[in-house]
Amino acid sequence: MGKRIALLTGGGDCPGLNPAIRGCVMRGLDYDFEFVGLTDGWKGLMEGLTMPVELETVQEIIKKGGTILGTSRTNPFKKENGVQKCLDTFKKLKLDALVAMGGEDTLGVASRFYKEHKLPVVGVPKTMDNDLSATDFTFGFDTSVTIAMDAAERLVDTGRSHRRIMVLEVMGRHAGWVALYTGIGAGADWTLVPEETVDIPKMCAHLKKVHARNKVALVVVSEGIKIPGQDSGKEKLDEFGHMLLKERSVGHEITAIIEKETGIETRLAVIGHIQRGGEPTLFDRILGSRVGVKAAELVAEKKFGQMVALHGNDVVDVALEEATARLKTVPTDWLNFSKVFFK
Ligand code: F6P
Questions:
Q1: Given ligand 1 and candidates 171, 182, 221, 237, which is best to mutate, with the most ligand atoms within 8 Å of its CB?
Q2: Burial label, 91 (beta-carbon count in 10 A; 0-12, 13-18, 19+)
Q3: Which of 16, 186, 275, 302 is the most core-located residue (most Cβ within 10 A)?
Q4: Is 129 known to be catalytic?
């Protein structure tokens, strides 16, 4: 009889998860694997929440946004008896292996389960933030930035008509990749990322100059920036200790500052979760499919405790522990590159 493999998706959803699930299942069928879908991330393993995952379930999901398995930010290591409950479900469902798809949090849990409890687990990286250090790109990022770039271009059209400065706030948490790529792609006049201290006088002087020439100026701001001299707010933390999106986003503060300092009417758009929905781009469909297929192959080879990664154009595997050790933030050379276009 074929092996029973569980699949789960944890953390924030992103386009590309369904192609990855599909890739894993379709490759797994070549090995005669039987799949069990655990719903809602680690909560599914903790509480034994399952759904059937067969060829019919996955064959048409390559273009579907979100995750058919559902997701959550549950951390079993933070729940009473959470870890034991997960181990019990694994046994009860007669599972042979688990494929966990997620970002640093979900994969951090996977890494601990492997290290501390010898759970046979393989990780698949996903996040729109693109902040996992062991892989060059994560699926979800390309789609999110494509959506944000489109939003930015729309803002410039309306901004130019009204002679305004337009500010677009994007997600990305503690890493500025989404803002950086959106800014470069949409031709922003200034981009604010968490990796760099905001220089308000310099930014405002530049925006005034651009506005005088172009009748519009575009600023892309990452949700994770800190404004000097401003309280970062009463941030709530999730079960992984990450800040949750604030009710009044940083974009509001920066917009008010720009309007006051430049004297130019300024408007803000916060696209939030719109960046996480919709069909995956071609890049994310291909990357999702590739890493999903590789995950099934790692299970077949019994290479547990590993995460699939993209190195250059090769799909390889790296130790989960190494993959979750640190965040990939924007380095100085990328910041300097983006500034070439602030003219
Ligand atoms: O990590 C992905 C991400 O979209 C971040 O960019 C953002 O800060 C966070 O998730 C939002 O989380 P939630 O969907 O739980 O509000």
A1: 171
A2: exposed
A3: 16
A4: yes
